[in-house]
UniProtKB/TrEMBL annotation:
CDD domains: Tryp_SPc. GO terms for cellular component: extracellular region. It is found in: Secreted, Extracellular space. This is chymotrypsin. It comes from Dipodomys ordii (Ord's kangaroo rat).
């Protein structure tokens, strides 16, 4: 059984448990068909050991990607840079050695590269892995308005997991992270909307989750059930952050709840940013992994 088969099998068991509530907050410790016996503080789906950082994060809670602060190098080991001919254009997140999740609107092709383990996007940076893409799987329901804005990238050669390269967990239970939960976005996007230069180092920002009704007060019917909102307190993703992960921490484990999708083109920070909701697309992710 290959890594992709094991991942699909693992995620399928975890999601079933979370949704049926047989063992609330369970995660299995190894691949098996049996119900997990070890309980954790939240429901997580992914490979064993996902969401754990070897290098501790340090988030002030006062930062923002627009005019943001540097992340601790290596502290977000699932963060990847998507590049074309050395130019960063979108972010993404490793969910296993062979798979990356990003936004469909990034328009990734097999001519692009996945750069893992980076901090300053220097090609000579120690520990960086430049990986080819074997196949791109955009969600078939993706529409330019932003619905189902997710794509999966299958790597031609698996990433080698190290202290600075590893996988994030995927959310499978919305109740784990209610509105108001402080979560974190990371990326190399523009630090000012009118500055077309990407951030030279990986930036991080704290964004509280925003309820769908509150988000719709700003964006109306543009916000659909497959989306989740965060921000509006002066923090904001900006151009170049698209496709990157929105992650929340619980019990020492980081879980991806969203994918940077869209928001105000001016990156003002006073309106919520909109993300693809991971729980809404998790069944599709499982299907792609199982079939490929």
């Amino acid at each position: 059984m290959g890594p992709a088969d094991r991942l699909a099998r693992y995620m399928s068991v975890c999601v079933c448990i979370c949704l049926e509530g047989e063992l609330s907050g369970a995660q299995e410790s190894e691949f098996s068909d049996q119900a997990p016996a070890r309980l954790t503080l939240s429901c997580k789906c992914g490979i064993p050991g996902c969401g754990i950082t070897a290098i501790p994060t340090k988030v002030s809670g006062l930062s923002r990607v627009v005019n943001g602060e540097d992340a601790v190098p290596g502290s977000w080991p699932w963060q990847v840079s998507l590049q074309y001919e050395g130019f960063h254009f979108c972010g993404g997140a490793l969910i296993s050695e062979e798979w990356v999740v990003t936004a469909a609107h990034c328009g990734v092709t097999t001519d692009d590269k996945v750069v893992a383990g980076a901090f300053n996007l220097d090609p000579d940076e120690q520990g960086v892995q430049v990986l080819d893409i074997a196949e791109v799987f955009p969600n078939e329901n993706y529409f330019i308005s932003g619905t189902y804005d997710i794509a999966l990238l299958k790597l031609a050669t698996p990433a080698r997991f190290t202290d600075t390269v590893s996988a994030v967990c995927l959310a499978c239970n919305e109740a784990d992270f209610p509105p108001g939960t402080p979560c974190v976005i990371t990326g190399w996007g523009q630090t000012q909307y009118d500055d077309h230069q990407r951030a030279p180092t990986l930036q991080q920002a704290v964004l509280p989750l925003v309820s769908t009704p509150v988000c719709k007060e700003i964006w109306g019917d543009l916000v659909t059930d497959d989306m989740i909102c965060a921000g509006s307190d002066g923090t904001s993703p900006c151009m170049g952050d698209s496709g990157g992960p929105l992650v929340c921490e619980k019990g020492g484990v980081w879980t991806q709840v969203g994918i940077v999708s869209w928001g105000s083109g001016f990156c003002p920070g006073d309106t919520p940013a909109v993300f693809t909701r991971i729980t809404a697309v998790l069944d599709w992710v499982k299907q792609i992994l199982k079939e490929n």
